[in-house]
UniProtKB/TrEMBL annotation:
Region Disordered, annotated ranges: 488-542
Feature: compositional bias, Polar residues: 507-517
Taxonomic lineage from the root: Eukaryota, Metazoa, Chordata, Craniata, Vertebrata
Protein name: TF3C4 factor
Ranges where the Transcription factor IIIC putative zinc-finger domain occurs: 618-668
Name of the gene encoding the protein in the UniProt record: Gtf3c4
Amino acid sequence: VGPKKEVAECKEKFASSVDPTVSQTFMLDRVFNPEGKSLPPMRGFKYSSWSPLGCDANGRCLLAALTMDNRLTIHANLNRLQWVQLVDLTEIYGERLYEASYKLSKADTPRGELGDFSEFQRRHSMQTPVRMEWSGICTTQQVKHNNECRDVGSVLLAVLFENGNIAVWQFQLPFLGKESITSCNTIESGINSPSVLSWWEYEHNNRKMSGLIVGSAFGPVKILPVNLKAVKGYFTLRQPVVLWQEMDQLPVHSIKCIPLYHPYQKCSCSLVVAARGAYVFWCLLLISKAGLNVHNSHVTGLHSLPIVSMTADKQNGTVYTCSSDGKVRQLIPIFTDVALKFEHQLIKLSEVFGSVRTHGIAVSPCGAYLAVITTEGMTNGLHPVNKNYQVQFVTLKTFEEAAAQLLESSVQNLFRQVDLTDLVRWKILKDKHIPQFLQEALDKKIESCGSTYFWRFKLFLLRILYQSMQKAPSEVMWRPSHEDAKILISDSPGMGSTEDDQEEGTSKQGSKQSLCNTGKGMDIDDTADDSIPQSSDIGGREPMEEKLLEIQAQIEAVEMHLTREHMKRVLGEVYLHTWITENTSIPTRGVCDFLMSDDGYDDRTARVLIGHILKKMNKQTFPEHCSLCKEILPFTDRKQAVCSNGHIWLRCFLTYQSCQSLVYRRCLLHDSIARHPSPEDPEWIKRLLQGPCTFCDSPVF
């Protein structure tokens, strides 16, 4: 808010002021006085917001975090299990205001000095974030040095401040840090005591419109226009639209915007829902020839206490609300001729988890799970002494619904539907077989369209089936061990444990055994039976081993099909981007020979493509060479390359080059490895290296 020395002098002056309206306001406001002396330290987070998928260098989400001391930062998961702060937006925005003398525009009249308490408050309120929300990914045009235009992805982050102003940051994708900030524009909302913010994004006749929905602690809700310069196909409102104007002192707690299709009007529409006290305010926005139609109302009788959290399933428009007494309401929108109505039903968490207090809810991206933050409720009319916060997961879909949604998905990416695949995984692990209806439906999809997505889905099912057939591990793999250095002789790995030893060590090993019996997808009885092989199982081992070998053979066949399909794609890129007898770093001849080595593989498209490429190569082979001994690396295996001297190099699954370096990348599920792009790589190879895993759709780290 000013030079450090001047700020320190002003703070001392306000703290010791004889005017109690100044001194008490200053001492009790943690924005001015974050140290607080006798007050508890301000640690933790006020709010966090996830960006859409595809914003960081790995194609995943960015995390905007607002700390208790009002610092807004952006973090990214650049390496596996490692979060890095990329930028501090509070610091950058403060520097911009300082350079502009704390004026939003040049036309603003100069304000008072920092020593004036009202000016001191103004400078703080214009930099204290209340909420921040990400927009969807949009496309901007960038002019290159040769006057060519190329499309560049960008994302917007709207930050709502205490004084009602909104800063709209525009970031170029992938977001790498301060250098990726394209612009920052400030909008004056004119709303007093703003409490919540949300993006309004509406698509009408292939034209995307955007705006910002702002809610106030006093009750009003309105949409503000956002002028997105140089953004293709984006439009905004001409003027603000007031959705609710009454100052009824019902604070707006949460706002969600859901795109829907109106079955009667035969067009797309936008449903805005806001939690206001114990009620849900809804507003249906629809663009017709007459202009923007606005229908609004309130849903009452949902909760006896104020709504503490609200979430929405954007797949079908279902809204979930919860109050602190452990009651969750499910609201299903039903369209009428004019507007819509809501059917709602009660979900009593006490029937599932016992007496609990709820603090927040969130629905998974595809609506498979509802996550609920809970603490212990009252017991015999008494509150618990200690609070233990837990995240509970409630399934919202059945296995059959999840499987049907995966088969009919327009996304065709397993990683983006991981909550649905988790439901399918749990069912197969539990039943130890793939349901017949799913197997038949998947085979039909593969025969009819042959998309690699369905082959990847089949591979996923076979792998989970193989996992379910295997013997359960005796240790819980994910839980860290906290064992003492001194152990019983019977526990040592070299000694076999008899039934008598197990009975004697029951009291000492009880906790360990209980951990082993809590694996997801396994019943306690099943785990206990599998962990101790009985003599009667010897006769049944051979059929089980044969079954495992059969599943393993099916897995290898599907993996080989996916590998060949990706090889065809790589060869297509080679053909499109190379001249006659040009040496690319991709082992083109080796990939061609590998594809044609199997007599049982008869793909006319592959044969024609290989014929064109070999004609282009003009009998040149361009083999790879081992960097240690300079011997030729033959292409005999899709996973690794071995030279004549026995040096083994892993192959990149995206380009099939040998990774002859100490550093490489792996996909999230550790299916495959990929090399890092090098500066001398052409753009088309760098584009290939940005792809996800060809087996599981996971990003590569």
